Each structure stands twice: as C-alpha cells, then as structure tokens.
Recover the amino acids of this structure.
C-alpha cells in the first residue's frame, strides 16, 4: 500500500465490550467538525446547508441546525422524506430530480408539507416537476444545476437562463443556481482550482438568469474539499456533507486534519493463521469497496503503516510488517474508512461515544432511502 498521508491519525479511544463490526462516532470530534464548518461559513457571510447524505441521521442533522445551519441538503426524495417527517422544514434536494410516476406524488406531498427546493437540469425534468405540483398553493422553488467541470450533471452555466425561463413558463419558481465541484476531490492541488471553477460557473449562471429577466437570490456551492475557498461572492450558501465525519480520502487531500476523523469502524481480529497479516471481521459488506490495492481499503492507526490491503465480503486483510507486533485474535481495531458515506449506509445505527465512554446509539434514519 502506498502511503500518501502527510500525517497518520492516532488510534482513537473506543468503549470496551463492543460487538463488531460497528460504526462508532466520537461526539466530541463530530461536534467540533460541525462548529468549525459553521464558523467558516458564518465568517464568510454565507449560509450553511449541510448535505445529510453523509450521516443520514436525524440527531446529527439537529446538531447542525442548532449550530446555525439554515436548512439541509438531501440527495434523494427519500432522504428528504425522512428528515421532513422528523420536523426539518427547509430542504434542498440537490439532485436532478425526476418527478415522474410515484416519485412525482412524493415530491408533491413534500412540497405541500415543507419549504422544498429541488435541482433542475433539463426541460423534461421541468415538465415532470410542473405536472407533479400542478394546482398546489405555492410555486415549487427550483435551482438550475450548472456543471462547473465535474462533468456529471448540470447545464452549461450560460444556458441556465434559458432553462429557468422555460421552468418559469410552466409555473415553477427558479430562485438561483447550484453546482457541485466533484473534481475538487482528485488531489491536494485540485481543491482550490475546483473552487475557482464553481464560483466562476455560478457567476456565469447568475448572469444568464438575469439576462433572462429573472432575479436570482441563491447561488449554492459544494463541497467538503472546496468549502474553505468558496465562501465568496456570488456564492450565498455552501453544501458540504463529509466534513461532519471526514475520512481517509479527505485526509489525503488535506481537506481535514488527522484529529478530525469522527467515524471509525470497530472490527475484531478473527484470524492470524497466515503470517504477516491478520484477518478482521470487516469486509466489503461493512466498508464497501472504495479504495484500491495501492491505496488500501481502510486505514488502521493502531498498526504502524496499517492499511487493509484486500477485502472479501466478511474478511478484511490487514497486513502487518514482520518487524511489528501483530494484533491478537480477539483484539478490536479501529478502521478509518476511505470514503465514509457508503459505510454509514451499510449500518443500522451509529454508536455514539466520547473516548472510552459510550453515550448512545443513533439510528441511521435515512439508510436505504435511495430514490
Ligand atoms: C450535489 C452535491 N452537493 C454537495 C455534496 C457534498 O460534498 P462533500 O461530499 O464533498 O461533502 C455532494 C456530494 O456528493 C453533492 O453531490
């Protein structure tokens, strides 16, 4: 495994007597991450609308609102439904929502229940949204998605005005634009240029909306890797999600420090039959498969140089250098995931602790609400 970290995290303190594999969140770290991101947004004079796809947890969403978030971002209608049911009343689904069929009825119900905004990047989607909410009391607010270089979804910034005007003729209410700078995740050096791309794309999108005769009030930007740079005009809100827990991917690109990892997977050593490795009870069913043979599939701070080198469904292969002591069968080790979001979606609950003290268990409320 190639070591690409400037500084490895320390092994976290965990409560004893854990049944594994388990997802543990250190509340002190999570609270500090929430506070730090809120401060960053507030100091920049922009609103924070955290993306809840990372934690999918009503309790953590409440911590984010209590810290000053202006609302939340969801990735699916299902996530929005779960949080709306729990009392969250201002939700932006930052996704090119297709509101045909049953999903159209769900969008309509959400729109009638809370302040809902949805993403829009095409005329057919606008038709479906307009049909879904036809005859409701208020117009549905939409944000035009523009592509700032990630090449995923979103119209060209200069085309935002045309789409917004079309949406308005259908009775939708275009209030601005949003973009996601996914290319800021690529490396340490990619973050700042991706931030420039997103700010520039939003500038162009707002100009295009104005040229179409509209008065945009929202310019919504991503993301954990770019958040430190993107809180500047014309951006009005930031939508980072992963900052709440962080992960090895964020550590590699310098988007967090080694003390900012809020979630570890506790896993038990179940076999030392093969020399120079131990097997832990966390495989792809626990960690997903984000990683590679060269980057590893999760970092184990308790073992010097320790990464999971390979995963089967229920087996994780932790290589241990011959000169190092091997963890014993029955020992519990903490694994920092490469990418935390899919890991959370594999667990029913998060075990909440502060150091060795076990505090609570919180359900992953929106787990599996994928559409
Ligand atoms: C549209 C959108 N907004 C915001 C985010 C949050 O960014 P991050 O995961 O870097 O915190 C994502 C993440 O995938 C996203 O897709």
């Amino acid at each position: 495994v190639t070591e690409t970290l400037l500084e490895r995290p320390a092994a976290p303190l965990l409560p004893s007597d854990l049944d594994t594999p388990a997802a543990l969140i250190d509340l002190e770290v999570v609270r500090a991450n929430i506070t730090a991101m809120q401060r960053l947004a507030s100091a920049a004079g922009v609103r924070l609308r955290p993306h809840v796809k990372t934690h999918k947890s009503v309790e953590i969403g409440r911590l984010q609102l209590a810290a000053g978030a202006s609302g939340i971002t969801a990735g699916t209608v299902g996530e929005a439904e779960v949080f709306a049911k729990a009392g969250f009343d201002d939700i932006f689904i930052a996704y090119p929502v297709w509101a045909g069929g049953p999903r159209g009825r769900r969008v309509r119900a959400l729109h009638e229940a809370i302040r809902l905004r949805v993403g829009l990047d095409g005329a057919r989607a606008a038709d479906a949204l307009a049909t879904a909410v036809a005859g409701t009391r208020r117009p549905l607010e939409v944000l035009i998605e523009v592509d700032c270089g990630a090449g995923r979804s979103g119209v060209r910034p200069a085309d935002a005005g045309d789409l917004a005007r079309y949406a308005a003729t259908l009775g939708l209410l275009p209030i601005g634009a949003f973009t996601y700078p996914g290319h800021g995740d690529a490396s340490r050096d990619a973050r700042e240029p991706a931030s420039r791309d997103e700010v520039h794309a939003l500038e162009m999108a707002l100009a295009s909306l104005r040229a179409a005769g509209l008065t945009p009030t929202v310019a919504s930007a991503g993301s954990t890797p770019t958040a430190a740079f993107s809180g500047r005009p014309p951006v009005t809100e930031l939508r980072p999600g992963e900052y709440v827990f962080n992960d090895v991917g964020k550590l590699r690109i310098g988007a967090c420090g080694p003390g900012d990892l809020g979630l570890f997977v506790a896993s038990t050593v179940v076999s030392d039959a093969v020399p120079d490795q131990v097997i832990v009870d966390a495989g792809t069913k626990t960690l997903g498969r984000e990683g590679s043979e060269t980057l590893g599939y999760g970092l184990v701070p308790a073992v010097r140089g320790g990464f999971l080198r390979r995963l089967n469904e229920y087996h994780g292969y932790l290589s241990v250098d011959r000169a190092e002591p091997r963890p014993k069968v029955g020992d519990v080790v903490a694994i920092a995931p490469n990418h935390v979001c899919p890991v959370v979606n594999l667990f029913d609950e998060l075990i909440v602790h502060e150091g060795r003290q076990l505090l609570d268990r919180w359900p992953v409320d929106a787990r599996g609400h994928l559409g």
User: Anything to note?
Assistant: The CA atoms of residues 165 and 214 lie 8 Å apart.
